[in-house]
Amino acid sequence: MKITAVIWVLLGYFLQTAYGQTGQDRARLVWNSPSENAAGSMPCGGGGIGLNVWVEKGELLFYISRSGTFDENNTLLKQGRVRLKLSPNPFEGGTDFKQELVLKDGYVHISGKKGSLHTEVKLWVDVFKPIIHLEVKSNRKLLAEAGYESWRTADRPTKGKENNQNSYKWAPRGEVKTFRDSVAFNREKIIFFHKNRDSSVFDVAVKQQGLEGYVKQLFNPLKHLVFGGAMSGMDMKPGGHYRGSYAGTAYQGWTLKNTKALKAIDIRISLHTENTESMDSWNRGLEQTIIADRNQVKSFAQTKAWWNAFWERSFIDMTSSDEPLVAQVGRNYELFRYMLGCNTYGAYPTKFNGGLFTYDPILVDSSLKYTPDFRNWGGGTHTAQNQRLVYWPMLKSGDVEMMRPQFEFYKNLLQNAEQRTAVYWGHKGASFTEQLENFGLPNPAEYGWKRPEGYDKGMEYNAWLEYEWDTVLEFCLMILETENYTGQDISTYMPLIESSLTFFDAHYTYLAKQRGSKAVDGNGQLVLYPGSAAETYKMAYNASSTISALKTVLSRLVERPGISTDQRNAWEAMLKRIPPISFREFKGHPTIAPAKAWERINNTESPQLYPVFPWGIYGLGRSGLDTAINTYKYDTDVLKFRSAEGWKQDNIFAARLGLTEDAGALTLQKLKDSGRRFSAFWGPGFDWVPDHNWGGSGMIGLQEMLLQSYKDKIYLFAAWPGKWDVHFKLHAPQQTTVEAKLKDGKVVLLRVVPEIRRKDIVILLK
């Protein structure tokens, strides 16, 4: 639930009074020269809006993205590009140029001097209202031209790899087009919007997957979706059109110009998204957004207070280190967390493949001559194995309100997931596939168009994804952990958790009865076959990752206070039906096996270590730690697959196992500067730029090096190199925060709230 804006202002004032600066100067980012192009942009955002901001050839430019702006093909369309020209121009041929991401207050500040001219620009996004503010102040009067630019001025066929931006991917059905937007002057404003056609990829997937008879019962977020907004400026009027090309993409611009020279110029972009058949309704909604912010000063104070509170609730400060790579790790952790914070109140989860901050694809890969809407692995397609890595770190950073869009995503799709289970197999439970569309069905390309006759309609005909449907249980555990960390009421999500568990019990009983007369094995336990250990060990028999998931979630449910006797009995009975984890040996060392058996290896994940993370069956303070460490050290697949790139999780495994040397080395690789001007724009890795599951896995590993918990114990510095100075504040279960400072190998500060939890602290510094 959102805290009101007024409370945020009061809270921000209190934090600044009580603590002084919250310390985001430790990660402050200042550029002293303009950028070459959009690849040299920095992020800015708030609420559910993200901007890529840069100055190029004397002009300020930024892309606009907003959560939930999916077109008919499920491409996550940008909202356009803005270009600001000032005359006289302080950024062209001048001196003392500075562009800064002011982290603690959540905005971008740009300044420049040219002779006696001194000009400052502040660009910020209202956290509580979908409004972008561009404010210019100068010591001399200026003329301004603000251009709204769109590359979607005509229908554009998308061919070949360009369809990777939508849900058709490599298997389009006929000609696929990105349809044009509507852009026009309206009095003193520029109005722009995209209105989805009646038919979309949702209808294509429903027909493909044999669900036409149930279409009225299925959630369809693409239907009648309209998104866009308006740009206006103080004392600005329409100034005509222009055309151009940027990064190989043609565009058209609509200009607003000053009616007279001014020392202060304010430009506002108001956004509105709505599922409606009526454009009158959308226009009214946009108008309400426009008039919602009559007091810009107050709005900025509220937004600033929100960001101040965001930074105070957690941090990891490593900038005092005299080792450059160590300092980079701390700075990039904070920069990436900022990007995640920009989508706190978004309509949809932060996408793993770039979030709100993708830019021109030709600047990522010179062979990809597509529009700025392009991203690899789809817009409305949510790959669960990747999404989870974006959301796990939010527990320890105390950002649980940011997890709500991801939880709501699954909650909204529950009916569709249960419907497909009932139609295909005639039993209960929610079937969530790994490559999941934002309408709850498998991605149509991954589902497969060339399917053998009679092949199970509930299955994806895909070598990587078949029988992989256990990742939803990670989000179920996140929900349970939210309750554990904060005490929040999670009752609204209990049907999701119960239905996700029911599916495994019902479906593997169903499959067993297809093969023979018995529903369970000789021990009275489920036969989890066919299964999948991540995307790697395929056609698995009793995958250890699935077993760990079921055991962990069920055990947590059984322990929840206030559950009924019938619920407890049902979950305990199911828990008894879960088979044990399997093991194997390498050179005499017992290790966790990926499964009891499998037919082939298809990817390079290490699910034999998923019982360590995320499931926590093995780890510090738990039995079997030596076996888990053996798995990390001796399993030949684990060794072969080890890496710090992209979604690789070896840094997390090492941290959870207390392997300080490996955890430190892998974290330095994972969170070092990206090689781009904005140092936390990693990738493309296995996905896209910026690679958000690269950043997410880096955050998780760094947190686990500093703080872990099991039962009532809180382990500090569990895998932390003693020579790395650090000051951190992180969250732990039971509504606990821990702030500690390590200097020259000694703990010089330890604050625990509530104080009663101090007795549970165990310092493992080596």
Helix/strand layout:
Elements: H1 5-19, E1 29-31, E2 42-46, E3 49-56, E4 59-66, E5 80-87, E6 95-102, E7 107-114, E8 117-125, E9 131-150, E10 156-157, E11 177-178, E12 182-186, E13 189-195, H2 201-208, E14 225-233, E15 236-246, E16 249-258, E17 262-275, H3 279-291, H4 296-313, E18 315-317, H5 324-341, E19 381-383, H6 384-391, H7 404-425, E20 435-437, H8 444-447, H9 472-486, H10 494-515, E21 531-533, E22 537-540, H11 544-559, H12 565-576, E23 583-586, E24 589-592, E25 600-601, H13 625-634, H14 636-641, H15 650-656, H16 660-670, H17 692-706, E26 707-710, E27 713-716, E28 726-732, E29 736-743, E30 746-753, E31 761-763
Parallel strand pairs: 27-31
Antiparallel strand pairs: 1-6, 2-3, 3-4, 4-5, 5-9, 6-7, 7-8, 8-9, 9-16, 9-17, 10-11, 12-13, 13-14, 14-17, 15-16, 18-28, 19-20, 21-22, 22-25, 23-24, 26-27, 28-29, 29-30
Question: Can you give a write-up of this model?
Answer:
By secondary structure, the protein is an alpha+beta fold. It folds into 2 domains: about 5-315, putative glycoside hydrolase family protein from bacillus halodurans (Beta-galactosidase, Chain A, domain 5); about 360-765, Glycosyltransferase, CATH 1.50.10. It has 17 helices and 31 strands. It has a 15-stranded antiparallel β-sheet that branches. The relative contact order is 0.10. The model is unreliable at about 10-25 (pLDDT under 50).
According to CATH, the fold-level topology of the largest domain is: Glycosyltransferase
Q: What structural class results from the helix and strand content?
A: alpha+beta
State which percent range the strand residues make up. Answer: 25-35%
Compute the number of structural domains: 2
Query: Low-confidence spans: pLDDT under 50, at least 5 residues?
Result: 12-23
**Assigned CATH architecture of the largest domain:** Alpha/alpha barrel
Helix content: 25-40%
- Sum up the overall morphology in one term: globular
What Rg do the Cα atoms give?
26 Å
Determine the number of helices (DSSP H or I, runs of at least 4 residues): 17
Report the major sheet: 15 strands, antiparallel
